[in-house]
Protein: DNA 3'-5' helicase
Organism: Suillus placidus
Amino acid sequence: MACTTAFAQGIDRSNVRYVVIFRPAYGLLVNNQMIGRAGRDGKESHVFFVTDASKITSFRGTKAVKANCIEELDDVVHGDECRRYSTTLCMDGVDLAVRCTDKPRSVPCDVCAPDSPMQRFAMEAIDAPLVTPPEGSDSNGTPSVQTAPPAFTPPASASHRMNAAVRQPAPAPASSPAPMHPTQTVFQDSDGMYDDSISQITPSQAMILDAMERIHRPCASGSESEDPFKFASQPSVPASSRVQLPPPSSLPNDSRTFASRANRANDAAMSRLARTAKLNKYMVVLKGHCPFHFGRSARLVLEADDVDCPDAKAVSMEEYLVFKRMFDFAPYTYCFQCCLPQSKNFNGEQPACHVGLAYKKGTACPFAGFIFKAVYSMWKEEKFRKLLVRDMGEGAKLSTLDELIAWAVQEHAERGRYNNCVEAFLWFCGNIERAKPQFFA
């Protein structure tokens, strides 16, 4: 089947195994629609780009280029990054982008598996792009295999990469194709290759069959293949068999589908909002109290009651300032005075007790420094530090100030967490609340 770019976006055949895109243009969004025509039944499928070696982008920076994602298409076709990652990076963003090597693995692209059977097949097809007639002819002198028509002559610098840029074939000898015999059968699909009436297959058909056998060979019993990329699709079974087969390697399981990734993003957002509710509960009670008393001994002491605070003298303020100044927040993510999250793009992550704060000259946050001081003074206490390392360290020792800083500034938004400084504060407050249920009542 051959079709134009517009028609290619409307094909909903379920058994399309291969898509060949000739000289891709129009940007990644349109090409993703064409790519999506293959494998709609969940079985293994492949996409080839036939393109020149030159870049696809021509007017970089223009509005049309940006709107149609032409530069992103160029990254997918000509880039050295995983094709799957380059595509999902543009479509879904860095948090949801996946690679062929990410678990669960799928059919790899040519970057992730340059020696795969399909890649070798593509390279062989490039080296022998035309079907040549065999020595024998039928009784009428007509060749038994039709010679391919002269092909378009590509630029001298054409490249050849399967799934990224496949070199266009060299021109055929200047001779007109012989007419086909009226009784000759022309097969339009791959099923014709397996017809019992065919006594002999052509070299090109044999090459395709060999590649398909290598790709669809059943997995060896007993243990998995040493090569993680060499997954087999569903093996052929007799019609009478009713054995439940595993899903094909090209079909992502639930963790790779768009819906599941969207659910994970929603779950992460809800987790952060739940943390915001806890922060609001804790900060309302802690407002106006000494963070050093709270961090070192888990006590509530009003700052006005102890101006000359002995707990503040017990820690090095110079070291604390080094710790605090290492935090550099992106705009509208965290309050730079107190480390509480803000509602960037109206995501609702700012605690209610912090809403309405006007960042004007001379205006101080009512919670300024509390989380920074509480976490730092809590870390200085060995009994708390050991528990923190055990429960939240994830391999970090946190034995020095540099280790604490490197760990505290990290953030795992994809896991529904704030930065580790806020997470350590929540962990500390949560432990106090479990030990003293009325502490934050």
In short: The beta strands are 18-22, 46-50. Residues 1-172+198-218 form a domain with the Rossmann fold fold (CATH 3.40.50). The chain has two domains: 1-172+198-218, 258-435.
